Amino acid sequence: MLEAAGRNANAITAKPGEGWGLHRMTPASRLNGANGIRAGGDGRIYVAQVAGSKVSAIDVDSGAIETISANGGGIVGPDDLAFDEAGNLYCTEITEGRVSMMTPSGQYRVIHGDMPVANPITYHQGRLIAGELRIGGRIMELDRDGGAPRVIFEGVPMANAFEVGPDGKLYFPAQGANEIWRIGLDGGEPEVVARDLGVPDSVKFHPDGSIISTQVYSGQVLKIDPRTGTKTVLADIGPGLDNVAFVNGRTFVSHINGSITEITAPGQTRPLVEKGLQWPLGLAVDANGHVLVADGGFTYLLRTGEPLQLAGMLFSPGFPGWVRDVAASGPDEWIVTTANGDVARWNPAAATSEVLTSGHDLLMGVAVTPGGVVFAEFGTGKVHAIEGGNVAELASGLDRPMGVAVSGDSTVYVAESGAGRVVKLVGGRKEVVLDGLARPEGLAIAGGTLFVADPGGNALVASDLAGGAREVVASDLPMGGPGGLQPVQLGGVGDMCGPMNTFTGVAVAPDGTVYLSADAEGSVLALRRL
Question: Which member of 109, 195, 200, 430 has the greatest number of CB atoms within 10 A?
Answer without folding.
Answer: 200
